[in-house]
């Protein structure tokens, strides 16, 4: 039994599946991930993918990647391609199970013909508005359409002519004949087919009518032999219709729909429509903007498939709606990158440091480990010289107590190098410190006679001349409130955008080894965080870095307080 199988049964869905297998209801588990290709995938979809593909993997079953392309107006090939790339990147394999709802257009049509023949569906010629009026409300029953009792042969004839394109959009629809007084509005003669005289990206001009989601989804599940149709809680009210369709058609399988709660991550939104609106308004650069909670954005930011899978596993599957802390996602990213990312030295906000007793013109190489506990990742040479850059924050003229970095008269160790002592500062006319002057102790180099001498602080640095200036992008959360979608303080999600979510700095200095870094490679800038070589804007010899995540959890506390306030 694999590790994954050993943990099976932990959440309520895996428990049901385990019981269904034990009870002999099924011998093979079949699931599906059914995205609509009208946007890029986001963190919520990652959960659904990990659940559907994960369950199939754990139970030795199969999972389909099925595009729900029943609405030709909103869908696009670019979205299909991005979704495939994202699922693959997450590490899942649909093998030969890539399908489209449009593959089954003839089947949906045949099913509706079957329903019409059985007197279980009819052509309604009311306008969309009149249909809405007849539907009633949660407190009032609906009323029957005057067309509800049309004869079977009239329905057959009208449906044939709808397909043939004889009518305009909205002239007729096909509705299931269920119960206009049903307490569940989804059962008040739901629409099954509508006229849409538009081309479709896969079927071209073949169809003038298109099926509604509930019909297409249920029949697709049954045709693919899906055993467990896992979907989010908003479909709970659709389950009676799902079952009505299965009960009233002659289909090869009887899938069971099970709902779970949506994944929401604090300070983000998971709605393709709203994410698209952020792009449309120019607030972010695109679906792959590293601040976006999309798979493409998270990949460009440096999140890894391993981290996302680890995160989803830690959150689990429930029926309870809650908002997951962003720090939980970031911690999963840190844990994963800590294992794999090579360490390098980079200075984000440089301050010049001169070693007064280091001979001019002298240069040497210091050896640095690429990873603190993975010697197999090797070492590299760091050029060292009289003039260096250190982080401006690592020097303070008048520091508080417990500041263990550099101060006038104080000592620190330079990472992988010598102990230095600050002896003077140089200022600009405005009084800003522009250089720090130090002396170094030549005996304190690794292997030297005083190598073991202890000082409280170690700081990072790069050589002034041998380092390279690069652009670094620092990101902050996209929204200022934890739940921009359902915010109690009112307002639209767009009212809570964080205007300071992107900070670009162009004067960072990195050690020379980074100049040849591959686009997409992730490094730990020691003491600073994890950074990825941007895959879009980097050119050979001129890498641009995106900060993936800081080393420490900087806003867990703030986030916890905010979430406690709203949920
Ligand atoms: P959106 O509101 O972003 O358009 P959607 O549900 O309409 O989301 P689909 O493409 O239809 O998007 O979703 C494909 C699958 O992913 C569905 O089974 C859906 O239930 C699931 N899914 C979507 N959002 C989430 C989420 N936040 N958490 C878990 N699963 C989700
Ligand atoms: Mg949807």
Can you give me a brief rundown of this structure?
The chain has 567 residues and is an alpha/beta fold. A hairpin with a 4-residue loop joins strand 18 (411-414) and strand 19 (419-427). Residues 34-36, 44-45, 47-48, 231-232, 262-263, 270-272 line the site of adenosine-5'-triphosphate (ATP).
Number of helices, where a helix is a run of at least 4 consecutive DSSP H or I residues: 14
Global Rg: 31 Å
Based on Cα principal axes, name the global outline.
elongated
CATH topology of the largest domain: Rossmann fold
Order of strands, main sheet, comes to: 12-25-26-27-23-24-13
- Unreliable parts: 1-6
The rounded distance between the terminal residues' Cα atoms is 39 Å
**CATH H-level superfamily of the largest domain:** HUPs
Q: Helical content, roughly?
A: 25-40%
How many β strands by DSSP?
27
Bound molecules: adenosine-5'-triphosphate, magnesium ion
Strand content: 15-25%
- In round numbers, the mean pLDDT is 94
Name of the top-level CATH class of the largest domain: Alpha Beta
Main pleated-sheet profile: 7 strands, mixed
SS-based class: alpha/beta
């Amino acid at each position: 039994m694999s590790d994954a199988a050993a943990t099976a049964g932990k959440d309520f869905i895996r428990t049901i599946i385990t019981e269904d297998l034990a009870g002999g209801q099924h011998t093979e588990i079949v699931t599906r991930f059914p995205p609509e290709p009208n946007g890029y995938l986001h963190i919520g979809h990652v959960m659904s993918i990990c659940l559907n593909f994960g369950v199939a993997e754990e139970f030795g079953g199969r999972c389909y990647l099925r595009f729900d392309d029943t609405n030709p107006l909103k869908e696009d090939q670019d979205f299909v391609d991005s979704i495939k790339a994202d699922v693959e990147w997450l590490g899942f394999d649909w093998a030969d199970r890539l399908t489209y709802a449009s593959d089954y257009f003839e089947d949906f049509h045949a099913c509706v013909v079957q329903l019409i023949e059985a007197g279980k569906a009819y052509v309604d010629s009311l306008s969309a508005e009149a249909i809405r009026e007849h539907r009633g409300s949660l407190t009032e029953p609906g009323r029957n359409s005057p067309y509800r009792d049309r004869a079977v042969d009239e329905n057959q004839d009208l449906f044939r002519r709808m397909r043939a394109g004889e009518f305009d959009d909205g002239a007729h629809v096909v509705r299931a004949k269920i119960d206009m007084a049903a307490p569940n509005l989804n059962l008040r003669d739901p629409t099954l087919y509508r006229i849409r005289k538009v081309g479709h990206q896969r079927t071209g001009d073949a169809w003038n009518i298109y099926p509604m989601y509930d019909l297409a989804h249920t029949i697709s599940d049954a045709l693919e032999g899906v055993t467990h149709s896992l979907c989010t809680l908003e479909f709970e009210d659709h389950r009676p219709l799902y079952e009505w369709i299965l009960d009233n058609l002659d289909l090869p399988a009887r899938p069971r729909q099970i709902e779970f709660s949506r994944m929401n991550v604090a300070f983000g939104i998971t709605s393709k429509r709203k994410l698209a609106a952020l792009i449309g308004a120019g607030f972010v650069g695109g679906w792959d903007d590293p601040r976006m909670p999309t798979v493409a954005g998270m990949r460009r930011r440096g999140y890894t498939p391993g981290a996302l899978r680890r995160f989803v596993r830690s959150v689990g599957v429930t029926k309870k709606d809650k908002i997951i802390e962003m720090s939980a996602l970031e911690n999963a990213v840190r844990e994963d990158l800590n294992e794999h990312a090579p360490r390098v030295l980079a200075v984000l906000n440089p301050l010049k440091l001169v070693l007064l007793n280091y001979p001019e013109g002298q240069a040497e190489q210091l050896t640095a480990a690429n990873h603190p506990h993975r010697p197999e990742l090797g070492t590299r040479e760091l050029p060292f010289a009289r003039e260096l850059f250190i982080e401006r924050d690592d020097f303070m003229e008048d520091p508080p107590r417990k500041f263990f970095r550099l101060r006038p008269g104080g000592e620190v160790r330079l990472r992988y190098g010598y102990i230095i002592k600050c002896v003077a500062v140089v200022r600009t006319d405005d009084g800003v410190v522009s250089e720090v002057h130090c002396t170094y102790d030549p005996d304190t180099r690794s292997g030297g006679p005083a190598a073991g001498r202890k000082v409280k602080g170690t700081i990072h640095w790069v050589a002034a001349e041998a380092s390279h200036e690069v652009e670094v992008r620092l990101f902050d959360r996209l929204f200022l409130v934890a739940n921009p979608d359902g915010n109690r303080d009112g307002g639209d999600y767009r009212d809570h955008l964080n205007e300071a979510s992107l900070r670009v700095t162009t004067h960072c200095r990195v050690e020379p080894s980074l100049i040849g870094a591959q686009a997409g490679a992730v490094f730990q800038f020691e003491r600073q965080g994890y950074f990825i070589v941007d895959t879009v804007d980097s050119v050979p010899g001129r890498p641009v870095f995106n900060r993936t995540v800081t080393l420490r959890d900087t806003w867990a506390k703030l986030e916890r307080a905010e979430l406690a306030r709203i949920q």
